[in-house]
Amino acid sequence: MVNADDHPEGVPAHGFRWFLRGVRTAFSIPGLILVSTFIGFASLAKAAGFTLVETVFMTGAIWALPAKVVLVGAVQVGSSLPATTLAVALSSMRLMPMVVALIPEMRGPRTRRWVLYLLSHFIAVTSWVLAMERLRNIPRPMRTAWYAGLGGTLVVANMIVVGITYVAVDALPDWVSAALLLLTPIYFLTSLWGSARERATHVAMALGLILGPALHTILPGFDLLIAGIAGGALAFLFHKFGRRAA
Asked: What is the pTM of this model?
């Protein structure tokens, strides 16, 4: 495989070629599952009173389905703007470790910082899982081009699907929309479990599955936050003491 560092004049052509490979990766089983879940989101947003333009804009601007669901739910219950903003921000904080883990994998010797800032907007569970699985097989100078094709295609495709579904949602039964929306957590769980590189990740996920429902009955407003912090901290201790024992 030709390395772009050896032939600088070939970078544009090679970059476009890897961009198209990223586009092709988006049309995969994980990508199709993600698109199907946005069908349910379009139905939810329309029922909450959002317009077509608002729903499509939200799909592209807030690139994380749980954050959009939190926003729609906050609007439905009449939450204030500061409370809604805080809820959406907290739901998106889970993406920060993904950004921290993925950005160094994409950075090349001549990668500009604004490119990484732009591509970080595309980081969500589906694109993150696909990238962590495949970036190691992509030449480092071409990783940003590949991920731009992957992330950009997922965003644009979901914006198109949301727009079409919003117009035709009245023809879908309610149970179909709900079932498609539930595909997201099922896919996220199985994908993260399969792509985990360390046992501590499995421990964190198992603790989250246990603590989440238990805390929901006690502190329904803070169940996910506390479960995430507690489960992550316990998994970190498991990893730390496990390495010492080894």
From this structure: 0.71
Report in angstroms the alpha-carbon separations of 201 from 58, 123, 132, 192, 231.
Answer: 31, 19, 14, 9, 10
Residues 1 and 128: beta-carbon distance below 8 Å:
no
Q: What is the largest CA-CA distance in the chain?
A: 61
Using one digit for the tens of pLDDT, what is the confidence trace for 45-90?
888 889 999 999 999 998 888 888 888 888 887 878 888 888 888 8
Residue 76: count other Cβ atoms within 10 Å of its Cβ: 12
Q: How far is CA 7 from the centre of its chain?
A: 34
Contacts of 143 (CB under 8 A, 6+ apart): 18, 105, 106, 108, 135
Distance CA 177, CA 106 (A): 36
Question: What is the distance between the alpha carbons of residues 130 and 150, in angstroms, rounded to a whole number?
Answer: 9
